[in-house]
Amino acid sequence: MRRILFVCSGNTCRSPMAEVLLRKKLARHASEWAKDTVVTSAGVSAISGSPASENATAAMKHKDLDLSEHQSRLLEAADIINADLVITMTRNHKKAVLALVPQALHKVYTLAELTALAELAHAKPEQAKKYRDMIQEVAQKTMELTLLLDQLLGNPPDIEDPFGGDLAEYEECARSISGHLDTLLQYLDQSQNQSQDQSQDPPQESSHSRDQSAED
């Protein structure tokens, strides 16, 4: 089974339209893989449970497609991990997807990028294959680096969003941020001192200069 995920901002306009449009095209496609393809959508800043926008619903109705039951979903890391192909509407959406799951680089494209790659594969298949191989290699190295950082740093916890919580939750969030900032200031102090020490070190005399002096 192939899973395709469309991503936009609020999951109320672009990605749900792309979702139902692709489903319709797949239903008309003759190949077996089309029948086994699942299409979903989500938004990087969606408020879960919101309906599709009025105009998106109207535009799809003109194509005999129904968005009246659509409910928006906030994009989660699991959505990206479980998808075989993630298609975003913009480069900023792509950045947001990769910020959640950096190792997904090999399967995340904007819709326009994917179209251009398909056209390149048709016109210059060797060049397109080279590009895909490079992306795969970078994705593998990104995954290795992510795992290494988790091992070295112990996968430190995020700063949780207190939105919607009571005053105590906001105060706890502030304490957490303040503690992190104290450590950050110590690190910046140390880095600055090291930079100053390095800039004050006398330049090292090269072996060539020493040899030249000896000859003189």
Care to describe what's here?
Strands 2-1-3-4 form a four-stranded parallel β-sheet, with helices on both faces. Helix 5 links the parallel strand 3 and strand 4. The longest helix is centred in the C-terminal third of the chain and has 34 residues. With 216 residues, it is of the alpha/beta class. The model has no long low-confidence stretch (mean pLDDT 85). Helix 6 packs across helix 7. Among the domains are: 110 residues, Response regulator (Rossmann fold, 3-Layer(aba) Sandwich), CATH 3.40.50.2300; 25 residues, no CATH class.
CATH class of the domain at 2-111: Alpha Beta
- Let me know the number of strands: 4
Order of helices and strands: EHHEHHEHEHHHH
Residue ranges: pLDDT <50 for 5 or more in a row?
A: none
Helical element count? 9
Rg, nearest Å:
26 Å
Mean pLDDT: 85
What is the CATH superfamily of the domain at 2-111? Response regulator
Q: Which strand-content bin applies to the residues?
A: 5-15%
Annotated CATH architecture of the domain at 2-111: 3-Layer(aba) Sandwich
The name CATH uses for the topology of the domain at 2-111 is Rossmann fold
Order of strands, main sheet, comes to: 2-1-3-4
Tell me the distance between the termini: 78 Å
Summing up helix and strand content along with how strands pair, one would put the structural category as alpha/beta
Globally, the shape reads flat
- Can you summarize the main beta sheet? 4 strands, parallel
Oligomer: single chain
Bin the helical content. 55-70%
